[in-house]
Amino acid sequence: MEVRHLELLRDLKERGTLGAVAAATYRTASALSQQLRTAERELGVALVEPASRGLRLTWAGEILASGADDVLSALARVQAALDEGRGEPSGTVRIGTLPSAGAALLPGVMARLAGTRLQIALEDFDLAEADYAGRTLDHDLVIAHSLSADVPAGAEGLFSGVVAREPIDVAVPAEHPLAARASLVPEDVVGHPWIAVPRGFPFATVLEGVEAATGATLERIVEIRDNRLVESLVGRGLGLALLPRFSTPPSEDYRLVPLTGVRATRAIVAIGRHDRVARRAVSAVLDALADVGAGLS
Amino acid sequence: MEVRHLELLRDLKERGTLGAVAAATYRTASALSQQLRTAERELGVALVEPASRGLRLTWAGEILASGADDVLSALARVQAALDEGRGEPSGTVRIGTLPSAGAALLPGVMARLAGTRLQIALEDFDLAEADYAGRTLDHDLVIAHSLSADVPAGAEGLFSGVVAREPIDVAVPAEHPLAARASLVPEDVVGHPWIAVPRGFPFATVLEGVEAATGATLERIVEIRDNRLVESLVGRGLGLALLPRFSTPPSEDYRLVPLTGVRATRAIVAIGRHDRVARRAVSAVLDALADVGAGLS
DNA sequence: TGTGATGTTTAGGATGCCTACATGGAGGTC
DNA sequence: GACCTCCATGTAGGCATCCTAAACATCACA
Asked: Domain B89-165+267-296 falls in which CATH fold?
């Protein structure tokens, strides 16, 4: 019963194919195949079986794969205790983030971490809510968001902590009749053209909420993912759009007006695997995130 | 952070010297010394330091040694889950026992285990209560007893489960005036010669309880450890003695009379290290022990 | 029926773990 | 103080293990 084998089975379960695990761990598929063989010989049980083009875990493989988390977390806790005793945490923390929240949070985090021995490796990606969880395979911490709950879809088994709650406002062109309003309700915004996002992407549920509340169907003139592009389209007066308050820069071309009467808030959530979050360096970054997040609202 | 190193540090902490660990794990001290060096190089911290003739753990070594239990227990739980799925447990369970409780319990346990694939390796030793805990290093399960609490002295960090509660009776020679009594109180038994046990050994606390309750000092004509020897001395009329009810055979030469008015019960307790008790084979034996123990009272 | 993706096999090289033996220091004994 | 024992450490070499590279086998899909 070796930790290496448990880890391999867990990775295999998560990444699906030997090749993917091999690439992620900088080894060859051959090495992993041999490790699986060795583990099966030592334990006397089949751990994987061929399934279509790839492999599937047997019941025994499943047991070991799910047990791996406990073992690796225990190991990570020991490492954390050691780091704790050694003083200042150090090392590189790999962060993946959705762009808007990253823009709002990470400058502050980096500033707070300047002068420490912590390094940040940053990557950004714009995904559907449910896809952020998968990126925790490649990053220690993933900054995701959730429109409906405090845990993003798909992140149920992971560590997750709400960093901030960000209102989602209606971006109104400066000359638009609604631009002077202090706040808007769903009935105000129907009948105007909208710059929307594709289904499943951020804020789509808010638009659907507006439709559900009014019974109307919004006129979606385009479907755009990138918020900068949305901003410039709104600025040119092409229509209304939804934009997150903290990460949208002020502009003379549009105004952000709060939307009430439907749920128009997203939770910005940091998610990660338990064994990685247990690292002292990672939890230090998490603290910094929470700090900066609290300062936003 | 390798499990092998954690285990080594834990063993070193428990057994005291590299040589003792080497003997217990069938390796040379040189090998272990090299392992310590490797671990220190990998972690970048000193784990041990010379102290008098041997080694002492540094603060970092202490952290890893205490973290080892969590990690090894997690591993053992995975193994147990695997065994569970595989059906019947198998393997050898090493039991150490105090002789009297072993005599009362183990025939029943062995009978219950006949026909399974479980093997029992048995050893017995007569020790002071506080010394049983140390034997869990060499046995999966140690059957000990406790006169005052439900956990034997020294076994605080270990798994422990009460298997049975055994009354300690007064063994009275058949012709003795007290032999016909249905029960005795402390006042009844002072003024008679006693066959006692050395201080710190089983039942000594009961005798001290009798003295505390009456204010008298008992006349101890001998101090004997072995219960069989005590039985024969009582049978010859040399004096009164304390004997455990379940593990003392009936005889025409003496009678066992219950003692009331002082705590005269011992808890027969199975103790073991968490990672070993997590083994499915061990917990199966534990179940059998509890079964047999429940049948005694 | 090819073509690409996937896992497996084999051989060989690098690394790591362990034993045997020699060395050095610390305590205890006469 | 000389000697002995216990304990840890250093060195050299054997052996197992883990990995890579390359060829192979299998399956799905077009």
From this structure: D-Maltodextrin-Binding Protein; domain 2 (3.40.190)
